Amino acid sequence: MNCLVDGTIPPSSGLSSSSALVCCAGLVTLTALGMNLSKAKLIEFSPLRATDVKLPSGAVFVIANSCVEMNKAATSHFNIRVMECRLAAKLLAKYKSLQWDKVLRLEEVQAHLGVSLEEMLLITEDALHPEPYSPEEVCRCLGISLQELRTQILSPNTQDVLIFKLYQRAKHVYSEAARVLQFKKVCEEAPDNMVQLLGELMNQSHVSCRDMYECSCPELDQLVDICRSFGAQGSRLTGAGWGGCTVSLVPADKLPSFLANVHEAYYQSSDRSRAPEQQSLFATKPGGGALVFLEA
Q1: If residue 250 lies in a helix (H) or strand (E), which one and from where to where?
Q2: Residue 85 CB neighbour total at 10 angstroms
Q3: Does residue 47 have a cis peptide bond before it, meaning omega lies within 30 degrees of 0?
Q4: How far apart are CA 170 and CA 123, in angstroms?
Q5: In this predicted model, what pLDDT tens digit does every residue of 79-88 receive, in sequence order?
């Protein structure tokens, strides 16, 4: 299959351009094979299943580019977070007398124990300490040698890491997963203060990304604060972090003033070279998603 790919998403902006390419390729392949697949909003991976979620009608999501590019391939931030989550999962599994050497993901520990995300947060409090772990302490906890840790568990580009923040990473992952489910629940129940509740969940998410997972950056934090100060009910980083974009939940009636104020406060007040405004700051509503156009 030969494909030509084109697009206008700003590079390294955290807008899931790689995921968009995967969705596009999947959709094209299904169409070529004469198959259909419903496009849902909540996607769970273990097991893989998708559920429709109806988002609020009185608000829009505004994307704002921090103009800080994050080159995933040139840094080890992502690999270190993956490894910290893996080590946290193994220590939690060992604490609960599970077969820790087979465990790779935090979700597996929850699944094996058959408990809620809230219970996993309590177990994390009991099993892990907030102080960073050294490789030597990880080895003591698991009963393995430093050589075994480096060759059997750590990846080549994380073998020289001196500290692992296992408590913080596990707390973020379990609490973020709980926020996703709570977001879905609020959307389903649609209370009068729905937009406010969803915004609070987004704000909590950014705080956790910033403080517990440490995947934000000063520019993202500044942009989130600016967005909230000009009327966003909630604002948080989106994508992989360490740069890229924020996403804000803004009441529709505040949108014109919000866009003008954020543009002035973040993009015009800085001496740094900023991307063109139409690519840096724009509102979006839930739509039909990816489509296939067939020429007659």
Answers
A1: strand 245-251
A2: 21
A3: yes
A4: 10
A5: 999 999 999 9
